[in-house]
Amino acid sequence: MLHTVTAVSALVLALTLSGCSAEQTLTPSPTPSAPALESVSFSDGATLPPDTEILWGFGFANDPGWVEVGDAPKPGWWTFVRADKTCIAAFRDSALADAGVDAGGDVDDMNDEEATDAVIASELGDEFGDVDGLLSDGYFHRHEAGESQIAHRQFSLSIDGWGRFVAARAFAALDYAVVVVVTCDGADVNIAAQEVLSKNVIAIEPGPHP
């Protein structure tokens, strides 16, 4: 599921820690009596009610293998460091403008998939150049929804033991996006990303954004 791009030349890139406070912790639990929540494709995003609330649910909050870093730089940011200190997982949910996409301009003409690609391109910045053709489809698990999925786009790069993985989903009609960035030095970023995606979920619920 994870798409890997291997560069020929080495890049000198720094790992950046973003402090956080995981106040919006959700612990997935089975609810057999509740109706099944559906998967959310890219085309489904436009059908969500305008007051829909989208949140990260952190399985890492109670996972001894990952330690939360405090002092978030801004609301909607959380960061966890793997216990062996080889990998960082930085999470964000925010308005599209805060994710680097002009919510009042270009996004008006974008569908969810196009807006998601724009979020990833903004996250990666100029150091990775043009990422067209380097992104692949993937999914987040939906909170308390069994096997239901939320479609996302992802990017992965590995160079000489260093790697970066980005997964994101934009909801253009809601002016909102969720992003996770996994950075590893001395560990396989794709293995770490698989753990991140399997243990942390997205909740899509009625209600206002936080």
Descriptive notes:
Strands 1, 2, 3, 4, 5, 6, 7, 8, 9 and 10 form a ten-stranded mixed sheet that branches. A hairpin with a 4-residue loop joins strand 8 and strand 9. It is globular, with a radius of gyration of 16 Å. The chain has two helices and ten strands, in the order E-E-E-E-E-H-E-E-E-E-H-E. The longest helix has 13 residues. The N terminus is likely disordered. By secondary structure, the chain is mainly β.
Assign the structural class, choosing from mainly alpha, mainly beta, alpha/beta, alpha+beta, or little secondary structure.
mainly beta
Rg measurement, Å:
16 Å
Task: Give the strand content.
Answer: 25-35%
Spell the H/E element sequence. EEEEEHEEEEHE
Largest sheet: 10 strands, mixed
Number of strands: 10
Low-confidence stretches: 1-25, 27-34
The number of helices is 2
Shape: globular
Write down the overall mean pLDDT.
80
Alpha-carbon distance between the termini? 31 Å
Measured as a percent range, the helix fraction is 10-25%
What's the gist of this structure?
Helices cover 11% and strands 34% of the residues. The chain has two helices and ten strands; from the N terminus they run E-E-E-E-E-H-E-E-E-E-H-E.
Ordered list of secondary-structure elements with their pairings:
Elements: E1 5-6, E2 52-58, E3 66-69, E4 77-82, E5 87-94, H1 112-124, E6 136-142, E7 149-159, E8 162-171, E9 176-185, H2 189-199, E10 200-206
Parallel strand pairs: 1-7, 6-10
Antiparallel strand pairs: 2-10, 3-4, 4-5, 5-9, 6-7, 7-8, 8-9
Protein traits:
disordered N terminus; mainly beta; ten-stranded mixed β-sheet; 10 strands; 34% strand; 11% helix; 210 residues
